[in-house]
Specification:
Elements (H helix, E strand, L loop, with lengths): L2 H17 L3 E8 L2 E8 L2 H4 L5 E3 L13 E2 L19 E9 L2 E10 L11 H15 L18 H7 L17 H18 L1 E10 L2 H8 L1 H18 L5 E4 L4 E10 L5 H12 L2 E3 L2 E3 L3 E8 L6 H17 L6 E3 L2 H23 L2 E10 L4 E13 L2 E3 L1 H11 L2 H21 L6 E6 L1 H5 L3 H12 L6 E6 H5 L2 H14 L2 E7 L6 H4 L6 E4 L1 H4 L6 H20 L3 E4 L5 H10 L3 E2 L8 E2 L3 H17 L1
Parallel strand pairs: 12-13, 15-17, 17-18, 18-19, 19-20, 20-21, 21-22
Antiparallel strand pairs: 1-2, 1-6, 2-3, 4-5, 5-6, 7-9, 7-12, 8-9, 10-11, 14-15, 14-22, 14-23, 15-16
Helix pairs in contact: 1-3, 6-7, 7-8, 10-11, 12-14, 14-16
The structure holds ligand C2E and magnesium ion (2 copies).
Length: about 600
């Protein structure tokens, strides 16, 4: 025993004497754990108090130097003593300094105690202040966060009182955010390991919530989220944790159930709970949701992995066309995760090792039948061959590796255009694909500007291809960024147009220059039958729409002369596709231009 421990026991004895309680325990709060430091009193009362417990079991009440006295068995602190002890009265004295609590004294008695009201509270406060020096954590603690309790639902209040949490409460629902749940999840896992029970992490995502938010406004969206939070709290028990993930996601951590028991029943209850219509500001709203689940000990032993795996299962649930699906993490999903992990590691290395390169596909103007523009398309030169972006960009997107990769593409394309122009090639513009992640970054416009000035490329020689979906994420922000890019003098095109679900009405608000019609429409222009009729009607509509907004219209993926003819008839301005040229290695681009020029000279000579 250290001298600190002895000093603490002495103080504990004084506290017991003041309250005339026979026994007591001092806990230290560290993160979201409460650790037993010393005990005082007969062993049959204190010996079996666990060495570690969730902090909320102690810190439910606002930390004030007022003991919570005589509350009998309903007090949460009682739960720290095994039922066999039969505790019927407890006094809890928070140990705190400068408003921060780092410990608690819990004094107990087997007898119910009516006489505690008259306890000398000041004397107890003095004892607590003597304890501070022995309990204070050696280093300052991050992010103390204590929202106003009375505005929060009861489960949340438990968490709100956690003294030293990292993370924050979500401002809309009052639920803890994902980071704040990390530690409680670890505690739940420790408990489960000791007690031989299971833990399930479920992530629930509301289907098509974004639409409600967009169409009916933020207030309705927020009101709906609050009601969903309440229903989820009602569905779960006191021991479970409920939190808010990002956007339309909620988290639930279910503890203390028998191992191997089905978490599906709970996921199903969660789904049912949101299925009943909601009433928000006069609207009746019906929702469906998807749930992903990961379990301890079956899927993982740590909270981080469980949360990640539940997210992966959710992703699978959402990918299915059927709404309201529940997916559990499986061995097959684990294999996928591992493969992705390998790919990500290799890709990270490839970026540093110079294994990424750009190919360039010519775009052809239909009036002149000449090409003066190219699209840069990324490739990965691996030892076993050239890999297409379809194989590695999704992984890059998920890991945010897409941001450094995107910056590299931008820089490389600008360097290349500058080399070609210096060599006298008539290349007016190179377009670069921009991923949603990249575009969403606050420093995106700055990055473009820096690359242009470092490579001394005139902005009019650069075009950025942005997809419909990245523009629709946050239309207002997109409008601002596009305007800033336009001001720089850079052109912007909307890539894969027609494949997103954006409303066309947004299009007129977006300051863009070119619409690129997706290959999905072009490929059916020569297949005959209803498919061709649909493709023709859609291409015609998109072309008309683009032109009415003053935009240039380019069709992607043209492979046959019949498709080309159809596009000429429909009045498209430019095309791109294997019919004219596949994407070329940079070294072959000058040949393409030389050939094009000699063909043009020959045909004008005849
Ligand atoms: P995208 O920007 O729509 O590019 C057009 C894709 O269609 C390219 O595939 C191109 O090789 C292919 N393509 C062109 N003409 C034809 C044709 O006639 N027939 C067929 N079947 N395909 C044709 P690729 O190079 O595999 O790129 C796929 C997608 O990957 C691109 O679609 C783009 O969204 C993305 N991507 C490519 N490079 C980059 C990049 O540097 N950054 C980002 N963020 N995305 C990129
Ligand atoms: Mg593109
Ligand atoms: Mg495209």
């Amino acid at each position: 025993m250290t001298s600190d421990d002895q000093a603490l026991i002495d103080q504990l004895r004084v506290a017991c004497a003041i309250t005339r309680m026979p026994a007591g325990v001092i806990f230290r709060l560290s993160g979201n754990h409460a650790r037993r430091v010393v005990t005082y009193g007969p062993p049959e009362l204190v010996a079996d108090v666990p060495l570690e417990a969730p902090a909320w079991r102690l810190a439910r009440e606002a930390p004030a130097l007022v003991p919570i006295v005589g509350r009998g068995p309903a007090a949460p602190e009682i739960a720290l003593f095994p039922p066999s002890v039969g505790v019927n009265a407890a006094v809890t004295v928070p140990v705190e300094q400068e408003g921060r609590q780092f410990g608690a004294i819990v004094l107990v008695d087997r007898e119910a105690r009516e006489d505690l009201e008259g306890t000398d509270v000041t004397a107890l406060a003095t004892v607590a202040s003597h304890i501070v020096i022995h309990l204070a954590p050696p280093t300052p603690v991050r992010g103390v966060m204590r929202p106003r309790k009375e505005t929060l639902p009861p489960h949340v209040r438990d968490l709100a009182a956690w003294p030293l949490s990292v993370g924050a409460h979500d401002a809309v629902t009052g639920l803890p955010d994902r980071r704040m749940l990390e530690e409680p999840v670890e505690v739940a896992l420790d408990d489960a390991e000791r007690e031989g029970t299971g833990v399930a992490v479920a992530i629930l995502a509301l289907d098509r919530f974004q639409r409600i938010d967009d169409w009916l406004g933020r207030d309705v969206g927020d009101g709906l989220l609050r009601q969903v939070a309440e229903r989820l709290l009602d569905t779960t028990t006191e021991n479970d944790l409920v939190g808010r993930g990002s956007g339309d996601e909620f988290l639930a951590v279910l503890t203390g159930h028998p191992r191997g028991a089905s978490a599906l029943a709970l996921a199903d209850r969660m789904l049912q709970s949101v299925r009943e219509p909601f009433h928000v500001q006069g609207y009746e709203l019906s929702l469906s949701a998807s749930v992903g689940i990961a379990r301890y000990p079956e899927d993982a032993n740590d909270g981080g992995s469980l949360l990640r795996y539940a997210g992966i299962a959710l992703h699978r649930a959402k990918a299915s066309r059927r709404r309201g699906r529940i997916e559990c993490f499986t061995a097959e999903l684990r294999e996928q995760v591992e493969r992705r992990g390998d790919l990500e590691r290799h890709l990270r290395r490839a970026l540093g090792a110079g294994e990424l390169l750009l190919h360039y596909q010519p775009k052809v103007a239909l009036d002149s039948r000449r090409s003066t523009e190219l699209e840069a398309l990324i490739r990965w030169q691996r030892h076993d061959g050239l890999v297409s972006p379809g194989h590695f960009l999704p992984v890059a997107e998920e890991s945010e590796l897409i941001v450094p990769i995107g910056s590299w593409v931008l820089l490389e394309a600008c360097r290349q255009v500058s080399r070609w122009r210096a060599a006298g090639l008539d290349i007016e513009c190179v377009s670069v694909n921009v991923s949603a992640h990249q575009f969403a970054r606050a420093d995106f416009v700055g990055t473009v500007q820096r690359v242009l000035s470092s490579t001394r490329v005139d902005p009019r020689h650069l075009e950025l291809e942005v997809t419909e979906t990245s523009l629709m994420d946050d239309v207002q922000a997109a409008v601002e960024k596009l305007s800033a890019l336009r001001e720089l003098g850079v052109r912007v095109s909307v890539d894969d147009f027609g494949t997103g679900y954006s409303s066309l009405a947004y299009l007129q608000r977006l300051p863009v220059d070119v619409l690129k019609i997706d290959r999905a429409f072009v490929k059916d222009l020569d297949v005959g039958g209803v498919a061709q009729q649909h493709a023709t009607a859609l291409t015609q509509a998109i072309t008309g729409l683009g032109h009415s907004l003053g935009l240039e219209v380019l069709a992607e993926g043209v492979e046959t002369v019949a498709q080309l003819d159809a596009l000429v008839t429909l009045g498209v301005d430019a095309v791109q596709g294997y019919f004219f040229s596949r994407p070329l290695d940079a070294s072959r681009v000058p040949d393409f231009f030389t050939l094009q020029d000699s063909v043009a000279r020959r045909s004008s000579a005849t």
